[in-house]
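Weekly puzzle thread! Below is a chain. First person to post its structure in token form gets bragging rights.
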Amino acid sequence: MHKKITVTDTILRDAHQSLIATRMRLEDMLPICAKLDQVGYWSLEVWGGATFDACVRFLKEDPWERLRQLKAALPNTRLQMLLRGQNLLGYRHYSDDVVRAFVAKAADNGIDVFRIFDAMNDVRNLRTAIEAVKAAGKHAQGTIAYTTSPVHTIAAFVEQARQMAAMGIDSIAIKDMAGLLTPYATAELVQALKAAVDLPVFIHSHDTAGMGSMCQLKAIEAGADHIDTAISSFAWGTSHAGTESMVAALRGTPYDTGLDLALLQEIGLYFYNVRKKYHQFESEFTGVDTRVQVNQVPGGMMSNLANQLKEQGALHRINEVFEEIPRVRADLGFPPLVTPTSQIVGTQAVFNVLAGERYKTITNEVKLYLQGRYGRAPGQVNEHLRFQAIGSEEVIDVRPADLLKPEMARLREEIGALASSEEDVLTFAMFPDIGRKFLEERAAGTLTPEALLPQPDAAARPAQEGVPTEFVVDVHGESYRVDITGVSVKNDGKRHFYLAIDGMPEEVVFEPLNAFVGGGGSKRKQSAAPGDVSTTMPGNIVDVLVKAGDVVKVGQPVLITEAMKMETEVQAPIAGTVKAIHVAKGDRVNPGEVLIEIEA
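Winning reply:
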């Protein structure tokens, strides 16, 4: 059946998240809003994903104020956001009262459409958010996080759609965050969904493998109702199919969008000039890359792993890690590789390869995953691994948030007078550290956005003493900012640089990755004695679990470290007495350094 196709433009959220690390500022959005509002889009995606974090961490904009101003500037257009179900916009499951409060305030401040997904495709983790959206009288879009594996069949996706429909959703989105869809697979999935569920079907597919527009066309022919596109100056590659191109392709057909191509081209020219302002966040790695179709590793996860292996001097082993990722994913029951499961699987794969023994070290997140704390695994997990990780501890089969106590009262108390509204409390809830820092700087009048570099006349110049030169590496829509600062010429006659990396994945972005110092820097001695406690990965100390004089057993956890955003317990190598502790919470550590000394 032929019908008009409706369009959501991602220019104000996912498009710039995919291509310039979510750095577009409100000052560059507002001047074009009057024209965007005239287009007649079904919706504009303006919030969620990484935008909230980017505003608070880098741009020093209040994300709630951004939303209010966009709502005022776009009175005739629905505003849409991306919401990670029970994770909201943060990196953990929140209690139901936090989810309800966040959705209610997002609706109050201007969000009309909530695209809700879960990294595990566990619909139980969508329920509270869907209920909250419906209670606010807004559009709840249930989302399938598309991936491929032996358990991710058309029938499984159709069953997920039926379960979401039973929860009262208003539409279904196929969210292809990694660019894994192919045109004919898209058509088959859309046909099955339309036959099973009487709801509009939306297609959101990144053009990473160069097939975005082909997937959309086949989806439309198969009965899809709606496509996500990006204005051409922020389209293609790790972004989405270009709005103007799709409008032109469908013009004069039964699927005609009815959108004004000339007006869209004016808007495209505006953003063409805006994009130049953010050149420092551009990267050569945002173009088409079909490797995702082979290794299924979402972009950015690849960069993240490469950076970690480089720190270890083990970049030459990256292919071993890519080979290990599918094995770990199979052991965990084939979770989709999207935040946070992509980090959970990728980090464990690195540990397995570098340790020379699979699961010699198991991250805390893998233990939580195998306990059911993230939700129900899509497939059967490796029971031997589960026993190795959690022993006889109980595996939960309830919705993880059912075990969480209400949090809003505690959060209000913790942030105190720094919060002048419920929205401020929710900012603190999403990102406790950077949220508090933002509110403190706002109170002190010291909010200062990161500097934008002038447009260069030539290639980037070498780092000057104390002045960072910034590069951005962006693979498949996930970006890594690299700041290189020249330090000094050391006794070895070589120039040493501090190199800092900030990581920014697609549904959850901006968590800091691990900075490291080229040419050394730590004064700690290297481990040699049997009782020396050290790590196998560079990272940060999250907690010290013992004190000098404590008696410990072999295998007793003595430290918790964080590497690649995953926490790991470091255990005592021998039984004995803690003789000395050389680290504190927050310290940066490197492999082989003595962190704690234990005497037998």
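Puzzle host: Confirmed. Bonus trivia for everyone else. The longest strand covers residues 478-489.
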